[in-house]
Amino acid sequence: MKCLLWAAAGLLIAGIIFAACASTAEPTVEPEAPDGGPLASIAALSAQITLVYATPVGGVEVEGPDDYVGIVKQAWNIVNAEYVRGNFNGVDWDAVYDEYVIKAEDLNSSEELWILLAELIRELKDDHSRFVPPENMGAQFGIETRSDAEPLPATGIVIWPGPSREDEYLFIWDVCQLSSAASAGIVRGDIITAIDGDPVEKEGEDFSQDDRYGAVFGSGGDQVTLTVWQGPDQETVDITLALGGVGDCPYRYYGLVYADPRIGYIRVPDFDGDADFEILESIKDMETEQPLDGLIVDVRHNPGGNPDNSVAVFTEGIVGTVGKLRENEQRTIYRIRGPVEWNETTPVVVLTDGSSHSAADYFPAAMRELGRATIVGMNSAGNTEGITSWILADGTLIRLAVSTMALNDGTILEGVGVTPDVIAPLGTWGLKQEPFDAQIQVGIDILLEQIGQ
User: Fold this and answer.
1) pTM higher than 0.90
2) Element (H, E) at 423
3) Shortest CA distance to 351 belongs to which of 248, 436, 451, 273?
4) Residues 62, 63, 67, 68: what is their CA dihedral angle, to the nearest 10 degrees?
5) 320 three-class SS
6) Which of 155, 65, 56 is nearest to 105 (CA)?
7) What ranges do the domains of the chain cover?
8) CATH class belonging to 37-44+140-249
9) Considering the domain 50-130 in this protein, what is its CATH number?
10) Do 45 and 141 form a contact (C-beta atoms < 8 A)?
11) CATH of domain 4-20+30-34+251-382+417-451
12) What is the pLDDT along the chain (453 residues), one digit of tens a residue?
């Protein structure tokens, strides 16, 4: 008998999880899941940042032009010593010093200093490196925080960490089932074309932060009107959503997607915390009755964390090196240390897309480099630079790329990502494909071929 079974993790269940099968068999896998949703992914991304306090927390009082010049010199020296690339992306960094010190001598306020520091770091033309003024400290990753630590009222739409770079539209990746969005009939795979009447716009490879933020938290007030396209044969509709508390948000989930042979599926929303434990426990639960014949590990829309222990569930060995791309700089061997927690033989497919960032670049890279998985989907984000943040003398902050990954053959993934073994575009309506979205189905088909079915 062939059938499709889903099992969900704890109370945080995706709205599309189901049991679609010729028999009446009930899903038996019901593990606990940590609190999740957009903010959990943000926490995972935040955890990747290392802070270096070059000065006392909060900084020192800035009193005049000499201090402005000193802080500009401090910022230049940090970049000069620590930036990942010795060629500074083709910029004459010594000439930058001369130019910006002269500019600093004419500054009259901290606000002017912060503008100049932002311009200084932008000279690198590196999207990962930036100056952070005080007003942006709480919104470093595009999400506002509140002093009482309570979540912002939201629509219940989940799009973090944003659309994949290959996406033509602003897709709704998931919907929290206890939310105004779910009550209004918005579902996974719907497309947002406007927010409060303003058309959604793509900027280069991404959509604007205002659009991504507005879809989740609104653009001011206690409600937001989204223009939504819900199917190829439908007209767009305006749906007004009240902002409020949300719950039952899809996060970690897993289950069988094919019963004979037994193919399992695990959604890994981030590599933070005990991700490796969650992966292994999910596998154990799916293997309660008998071993899996194949497994899909989904790291699409995964913002990162620490992948090493998760890779060690499946394999071990030397993947490449990590460090600066500078002459005479020593690089560290990137080794996945065992013992392997599961096995090294059961066929594995890893799903990636243009929003598989950082650790979700490293994970598929390591799995393929060590011969453990077939990669399916679209290129991962290519966000492989390690970031360290330095606190400047006035308490402001520089985020700076200080290292990057190279595979064993010297291939650099930064800006390119892991190119899948099997390219599988999601397409305009791929998230709505039944019973599984288009990329999951390709993964199933590949495993069936590898297993010999």
Assistant:
1) no
2) strand 422-423
3) 436
4) 80
5) strand
6) 65
7) 4-20+30-34+251-382+417-451, 37-44+140-249, 50-130
8) mainly beta
9) 3.30.750
10) yes
11) 3.90.226.10
12) 333 433 333 222 222 222 233 322 322 333 333 344 444 444 444 444 455 544 444 444 556 668 999 999 999 999 999 999 999 999 999 999 999 999 999 999 999 999 999 999 999 999 889 999 886 655 554 444 444 446 789 999 998 777 898 999 999 999 999 999 999 999 999 999 999 999 998 877 788 888 989 999 998 899 999 999 999 999 999 999 999 999 999 889 999 999 999 999 999 999 999 999 999 999 999 999 999 999 999 999 999 999 999 999 999 999 999 999 999 999 999 999 999 999 999 999 999 999 999 999 999 999 999 999 999 999 999 999 999 999 999 989 999 999 999 999 999 999 999 999 999 999 999 999 999 999 999 999 999 999 997
The tokens describing 43, both together, are 């926490």
Are 120 and 131 in contact, with CB atoms under 8 Å apart?
Answer: yes
| Domains 4-20+30-34+251-382+417-451 and 50-130 in one fold | no
Give the length of the chain.
453
